[in-house]
Amino acid sequence: MNVDADGRVRVDGPLTFATVSARLADSAPLFRPRQRLSFDLSGVTAVDSAALALLVEWLRLGRQKGVQVEFTAVPAALRSLAEVSELDQIDASLAAP
User: Where is the STAS domain (predicted)?
Assistant: First the structure.
């Protein structure tokens, strides 16, 4: 995973039980001192509840490291999972538009 100078991170491919552990490990170096990280999820091709857990973990890491975390282009399926889990209330970017 790469981050640009503005803190944007493009996430591509599936975010599922099969992939999130590796994504979490790959993202750890991104949480070095910086003001914000913006995860662009427009390239995500499949999600399950593990994707939601990953986003919650990124939010937790951000709070722990003092980095503002936001999500853009959140897939509708992930928004639905967030709504069912009532996690759409902890981060506005997870709420339905």
Answer: 9-97
| H/E run at residue 78 | helix 76-84
Query: Helices 76-84 and 49-65, interaxial angle, to 10°?
Result: 80
Residue 56 is assigned to a structural domain of this protein: yes
**Residue 3 included in any domain:** no
Amino acid 43 reads: G
Q: pTM for the whole thing? A: 0.88
pLDDT for residue 86 is more than 80: no
Which residues are within 8 A (CB) of 37 and not within 5 positions of it... i.e. 6 or more apart? 3, 7, 9, 30, 31, 58, 62, 67, 68, 69, 70
Express as a percent the part of the chain with pLDDT over 90: 68
Distances in Å between the Cα of 18 and the Cα atoms of 2, 33, 43, 50, 93 are 20, 29, 17, 9, 24
Calpha distance 37→65 (Å, rounded): 11
Domain assignment present for residue 23? The answer is yes
